[in-house]
Amino acid sequence: MSILFDPRQVPVPPEEGPQTVWELTARIRDALETGFPDVWVVGEVSNLKRHASGHVFFTLKDARASVRCVLWKSAAGRLPAEMADGLEVEVRGRVGVFEAAGQYQVYVTRLRPRGLGALEVAFRKLKERLEKEGLFDPARKRPLPRFPRRIGVVTSPTGAAVRDILHVLARRWPAAEVVLAPARVQGEGAAAEIAAAIRALNRLGGVDVMIVGRGGGSLEDLWPFNEEAVARAVYASAVPVVSAVGHETDFSISDFVADARAPTPSAAAERVVPDRREVLRSVEAWRARLGRGLAHRVLRLRDALALYAQNRYFRFPQELVLGRVQRVEDLAQRLAATARERAGRLRLRLAQASAGLAAHAPRAAVEAAAGRLGLLRVRLASAQGLRRERWAARLDRLAGRLEDLGPDRVLSRGYSRTVLERTGRTLTRAADAAAGDLLRTHLAQGSLRSRVTEAETAAGPPGRRGAAGRRADDGPTLFGPA
Predict the structure, then answer these.
(1) Which stretches of 374-468 are assigned E, i.e. beta strand?
(2) Hey, what CATH topology would domain 7-116 get?
């Protein structure tokens, strides 16, 4: 096991007088830098701070001890991206002394991550689970009241955070009432007290906004605000919650669940209340603006009143009334004339429509149709009589011709008609009868029967033959079919 220094190598102080603190610290520094020029240490990062100058300061710890570490700006650029509190790292460097604080520390030259610390792993697991449940949903976050009358504060009553909050609230908005719900903010059981204080402020009623937080510290110091009990109490709060845990670079689970986050308790107090000086300046500006607006409006109304006072109608209001009366009378006369003219036009249109309706009335149409029907009846009777006379005369002529052409008339002149009995046809040629055929001869009075004993054929008078060999004059005769 190594020791910080060998007592035998410590020089004996001169007897002429005691050493100063700086001289003693310088001797210790020389001993440490000589005895530990190169160390290789593993531990968990805590209280990580990045200075504005670019230097990085943190504490390296394990379960039983801790040591301060410094990483100068020249080497800080090689830090891993995941460098944060809770990260387990391996560092190499030399041991030295910070004279102003009288403490030893490791000046780191090389650093590499070795794995996440137990707290960091627990933090990430809880954050992922609560995020999946919707506790971080931005849609559920509520706006903070503009002018809160009662402000609840959940923090340690003896810490610097409560003093900072009260100081800022008294300076910015002294009209607000502050209700402190005391709770431990670090150590075992602190998470349960914080959750209970949040619920107590909700039961109290009348609280417009709530600040939950504490000052800065290591990851272990801030761990109660990473507990699930605190996260669910913030989520269930009916009062809007502002989380103000640690410094600006510190983030906790309650920051993600709360309705708003402030980097420090003082910043949270500034966020929940307006600055009375700014409000007074705004009120004064609005008052001045309102005064100027009212003065301007009064001047405009005064000018308008002066203008109206010069108007002749205000000086002689009866003229305005008389003019209106005269216009009403004129309009009444024009209205009456227009009504009469329109009534005349309507009466004329009514008379014309009545005449047209009378001309097209059904009774008139029926009477006109009856007249036309009587005339047509007379004309039809006349035409029928004339036509009967014409047909009677024509019938008489045809009857006379028929009588003249009738067979009886022919027979009365000494002619006869011979019919072949077996066929009933009138014979016109001897060739149509054969020997032995019975014949019937019709006379003007009576008939004779005879039998053919011999048929003599002789050429008849010449005549035209048709396409089938028949004569052109073959055909029916006065005595019947051929």
Answers:
(1) 417-420, 425-426, 438-442, 447-451
(2) OB fold (Dihydrolipoamide Acetyltransferase, E2P) (2.40.50)
